[in-house]
Amino acid sequence: MAPGMIVSVPTAAYLLAMKLRACRAPLPGYAGDYGDLAFLLGKMDVSSLEAAEATYARFFPNDAMSETAVEVVRQVLSKPDKP
Amino acid sequence: MTSKPTSLREVADQSDTLAGFGRNLRDWLHEVRHLTSRSQLERALTDNPPCLNGRFPNGDVADAWLASYAELLSSQIDREPPAWSFEPSRTAREPWFAEDYTSPRLRLLALLHSPLPFKRRNIYALNVELVLHLRAGRPRKPENQKRKTNAARQSRFRARRREELERLRRLLQANSASPETAGNEPDFAA
Question: Cβ atoms within 10 A of the Cβ of B4, count?
Answer without folding.
Answer: 13
